[in-house]
Amino acid sequence: MHRLSIVIVTLNSGAFLPACLGSIVSRKSSIPLEVIVVDNASTDDTVGYLKKSFPQVRLIVNDENVGFNRANNRGIRESSGDLVLLLNPDTKVEEGALESLAEFLLSENDLAAAGPKILNGDGSLQRTGVSFPTLWNVLLEAFFLNILFPRSRIFGRHRRLYEHPDAVVEVDYLQGSCLMVKREVFDKVGLLDERFFMYFDELEFCYRCKLLGWKVKYDPAAVVTHYGGGGTAFYDEVRLMHFHRSFLTFLKKHYGPARTFLFRTLLLLRALIRWLLFSCASVVPVRRQSEYRSRSRGYGKVARFLIGGS
Known about the structure:
Elements: E1 4-10, H1 17-25, E2 33-39, H2 46-53, E3 58-61, H3 68-78, E4 83-87, E5 91-93, H4 97-106, E6 111-119, E7 125-126, H5 135-142, H6 145-148, E8 169-170, E9 178-182, H7 183-189, H8 201-211, E10 215-226, H9 237-254, H10 256-282, H11 289-308
Parallel strand pairs: 1-2, 1-4, 2-3, 6-10
Antiparallel strand pairs: 4-9, 5-10, 6-7, 6-9, 8-10
């Protein structure tokens, strides 16, 4: 009998935990499972709430915020299942999703990881199966062509919105908010790269899987609701810097200096265009003015980082 370990990293996530953990422990599963929560020094009542309301969950408390990947790796090392689910706390696992993902993942020997259909809180679709970064995709994003023509096989290649959301498909990588991985893959590929504080962790891990001949696939029969990551305010000033630092870390590790330079140039162009647009939008007294100001500052910092940062 296969055993599933669910690893959840929290940071001031108390508001989401009733729905997330409730959707797991309140249902009978045909798969033996353990739930491990690794808390990154929350300042809300996350730890107290977990001890009181979910004593069956194994809780690991870090003294400081060690980053998403280090916390996940600690949970993976402490887990015992031959299947490991990396799950964000701002999710709700729908009925049968765990069983579907596990069965799907075990159906092919060369399948390293699988992810579900992911929905926003309003029931709309979050795209999870996407492609590794290319110069073409960054160029398209710089001029918003991927947004203007999202379902085009030429301009929408990165998000692949032209593919049917109910079709099983092999992808380059999957969204890390819900990703199930075979234990043997971690043993052969390695754990998450802890140089990535946040962002690009799942992309980089799946990239290493692909290099060793493993596959990554999307399972639409499994459904998980993800309450974060669907809104534009998600990419605020701090997150924009984390995103671009991680992007460069990935490029330097896997793409080499020449391609990294070309990517950096296109990323700078994209940042400058967005800095200009959000700077103009931030002076207009609209409901999202504070968001536009934050993103304007963020892209300004990103541009300076890309010009002179390491």
